[in-house]
Design brief:
This protein has 348 residues and is mainly alpha-helical. The chain is built from 15 helices and seven strands. The chain has helices at 4-21, 35-49, 54-67, 71-75, 79-85, 93-109, 117-121, 128-138, 148-158, 172-188, 221-237, 251-256, 286-298, 306-312, 321-333; strands spanning 145-146, 209-210, 276-279, 282-285, 304-305, 337-340, 343-346. The strands form three sheets. A three-stranded antiparallel sheet has the order 5-7-6. Strands 1-2 form a two-stranded antiparallel sheet. Strand 3 and strand 4 (282-285) form a beta hairpin. The radius of gyration is 22 Å and the shape is globular.
């Protein structure tokens, strides 16, 4: 059972912290009057922020939206054009998923973003949290969501610390309920709203999730976007995964945080269960080599011999030719490259 007084303290202290520590990011506080334009900019930022540090995204985001200033510009871009614009971001499949999502919105929804969760989630490449972000930041529809940062904050404050193996005592089904109650209290007090409706969709305990169909009426989008931005910033700057900065918590926050002082610093471990290969005694994940192959092709005008690409990425000492061939086939399946005999190039 959630303690209402703890929720009030949490909200009051987080708003106070955010007023002083809010980050300035290019995808925040958008001034565009067209909600579809705002939704496009939010979509680009959310896809970029998946698995990439904020500082790197800040640079590439500006470059990317200059190259593709509108949804329509991105929708008609070729694979190669998108991959070249994505240079330096990594996880290149995201770029094509983003372009494909833009094409779907143009083709199926006439270039207008749907606002309901079911329609947003029907667009390949848009997941629960991204759909919620679009609703919150572009369409004045406050929507309780959970991503990595929010999950960590809510669990530590209202449930307790994570387990030794990094798992959580409570799953996202319980946490989305907490998120909804906290959101309503954070932006709904005195607004005359009807509240946040219940959760109907949870994809899994490890997914970023969102309350389907949730809304708070008569509440400005700025309130909701600011609340979620506050959670993002607090998770990124204070309530970090391995080394939370407990000394930055106010005495009030310390008094209500159920994980206070219980989360120990951790060390990053190499995940050898991830597909990869040993190269000169060093484990290299397959995703890293995929990225190197795409990077080697970005500056090329046309077809490049596979042997030349192998030399460019420093992969000559690998004896398992079949492993590398399968990697290239995977890149082709994902629409990143084309293969012709012994040559490859970025997909057109």
């Amino acid at each position: 059972m959630l303690d209402d007084s703890h929720i009030r303290i949490f909200i009051r202290e987080l708003w106070k912290w955010f007023a002083v520590n809010k980050r300035t990011l290019p995808w925040r506080d958008l001034t565009e009057k067209d909600p579809d334009k705002r939704a496009y900019l939010i979509l680009v930022s959310e896809i970029m922020l998946q698995q990439t540090q904020v500082l790197r995204v800040m640079v590439k985001y500006k470059e990317f939206v200059q190259i593709f200033p509108s949804l329509q510009d991105l929708a008609k871009a070729s694979n190669a054009e998108v991959l070249i614009a994505w240079k330096g971001m990594g996880y290149n499949s995201r770029a094509l998923r983003l372009r494909d999502a833009a094409k779907t919105i143009v083709d199926r929804f006439s270039g207008q973003f749907p606002t309901d969760m079911e329609s947003l989630l029907s667009i390949k490449g848009i997941g629960d949290y991204t759909a919620g972000a679009i609703r919150n930041f572009a369409f004045n529809i406050p929507t309780p969501c959970i991503d990595t940062n929010i999950r960590r904050i809510l669990h530590r404050f209202f449930v307790g610390p994570e387990n030794v193996d990094g798992t959580w005592e409570k799953g996202d089904r319980e946490l989305i309920g907490i998120a909804g109650k906290v959101l309503e209290a954070a932006i709904g007090s005195g607004k005359g709203n009807r509240g946040i409706r219940g959760v109907r969709r949870i994809r899994g305990s490890n997914a970023s999730v969102c309350s389907s169909g949730s809304s708070v009426s008569s509440v400005s989008s700025e309130s909701s976007s600011s609340w979620h931005a506050a959670l993002m910033d607090y998770g990124s700057l204070v309530m970090t995964k391995a080394n939370p900065k407990w000394e930055l918590l106010s005495s009030e926050l310390r008094s209500i945080c159920k994980a206070y002082g219980k989360v120990k610093a951790g060390t990053k471990k190499v995940n050898k269960s991830e597909p990869g290969i040993d190269l000169d005694g060093r484990f290299i994940p397959r995703r890293i080599i995929r990225g190197k192959v795409v990077e080697a092709l970005r500056g090329a005008d046309g077809w490049i011999a596979i042997d030349e690409v192998v030399r460019k990425i420093g992969f000559e000492s690998v004896n398992d030719q079949q492993w590398f061939d399968e990697l290239l086939k995977g890149l082709r399946r994902d629409g990143l490259i084309e293969i012709r005999a012994s040559k490859i190039r970025l997909a057109r």
